[in-house]
Specification:
- The structure is a single chain.
- A hairpin with a 4-residue loop joins strand 3 and strand 4.
- The N and C termini lie far apart (about 60 Å).
- The chain has a single domain (about 30-135), classed as Lipocalin, CATH 2.40.128.
- It is built from 1 helix and 9 strands.
- With about 140 residues, the chain is mostly beta strands.
- The chain has an 8-stranded antiparallel beta barrel with strand order 1-3-4-5-6-7-8-9.
- Helices cover about 15% and strands about 50% of the residues.
- Keywords: Signal.
- This is Lipocalin-like domain-containing protein.
Length: about 140
């Protein structure tokens, strides 16, 4: 009976150990989906170790917010509202995600940004020059 109890305890221990250890293939990558329409909210940079964010000056007063729309088929659309009667100009391209990097190619211009924060309501990215862009849903 002692051997059976010992064998059962050993089996449970191995099972618990095996389920508690996992191979984290996403290497810190958040699993929140990128797809959707993201409204441009804030821009800024880091000054003296502190983020300095302001309301996005690209957004025209009285108009809808400029946006980034990422589709399931990896197409991207950038909407820009002009000062003239809030006219909308949409530029299209593609995007890809590799771990915590977002790469967009719009009108032949490639931009790669680090995903700093991604929640259901906020997408915060930072480019190589340190420019931070915050989008909200």
């Amino acid at each position: 009976m002692k051997i059976r109890s010992l064998l059962l305890a050993l089996t449970l221990s191995i099972g618990l150990f095996a389920t508690s250890c996992s191979n984290d293939d996403n290497e810190g990558e958040t699993l929140v989906p990128l797809e959707g329409k993201w409204d441009l909210s804030k821009t800024g940079t880091v000054v003296g170790g502190t983020e300095q964010l302001i309301d996005a000056p690209e957004n025209q007063s009285g108009c809808n917010k400029d946006y980034l729309e990422l589709k399931l088929d990896n197409t991207a659309h950038v909407g820009d509202y002009s000062t003239t009667a809030c006219a909308l100009t949409v530029q299209s391209g593609i995007y890809s995600r590799s771990h915590n990097n977002l790469t967009t190619v719009i009108n032949g211009v490639t931009k790669t940004q680090d995903i700093v924060n991604l929640t259901l309501k906020e997408l915060k990215v930072k480019d190589a020059a340190g420019i931070i862009t915050v989008y909200t849903r």
